[in-house]
Amino acid sequence: MSSIAQSAVARDPTLAQAWAVLEAVPDPEIPVVSIRELGILRDVRRAADGALEVVITPTYSGCPAMSQIAEDIGLALDAAGFGPHRVQTVLAPAWTTDWITDDARDKLRAYGIAPPTGNCGSAEASAGSKHKVIRFVPRSLPAPACPRCGSKHTERLAQFGSTACKALYRCIDCREPFDYFKPY
C-alpha cells in the first residue's frame, strides 16, 4: 500500500475494512496467494461519488484471469456488506514481479512454483529516476532453484508453463517438473 493510500485509510476506516476483506481474495490461478500479495491489488479508495473504488493491475495486459479477479472482488465486498463499489483496471505503471511480497514468494515455493529470481527494477529506476528502462533483449538470469528439493541444477523445458507468465522447468536432481514465475 502506498503512503498516499495509507493516509486515506487512516482517515476512512471503511477503506481499512475493505483492504482487510480484499486481503483474503485469492488469485484464481494460484489460490495460495492473494491478489494483494501478488501486487495485483493496487489501491482501494473513495471515488468522487462516494463509491468504493478498487484499483487492480494485471500481471500482463492479456491476463485472462482479470475478469474473474474483478468478479471475486465484487463478491467479497458484497458478502462483507459494502455499499456501492467498482473495480478499475489500470495498465500503467505496468505490473512487475518486484511487486510480489516476500510472503507470497515463500507460498509460491511451498506450492511448487519457483518464484521469480532477481529484481526486475533497472539501475536507473532504483537510482531514483521516475522512468524505468524497458529491455527488449532478455537478460541472462541463473536457472531457478527447484521448489521441491532446492537444487539449482534445473533446466527449462518450455518458455511457457501452465500460464503465459510462467515457464516450465525440470529439476535434474529430483527429476520433478515445476513452473517458474518469470521475472518481468
Automatic annotation (TrEMBL):
Residues 143-182 form the PaaD zinc beta ribbon domain. This is Phenylacetate-CoA oxygenase subunit PaaJ. Pfam families: FeS_assembly_P, Zn_ribbon_PaaD. Residues 16-78 form the MIP18 family-like domain. Gene3D superfamilies: Fe-S cluster assembly (FSCA). It comes from the Bacteria. It comes from Paraburkholderia bengalensis.
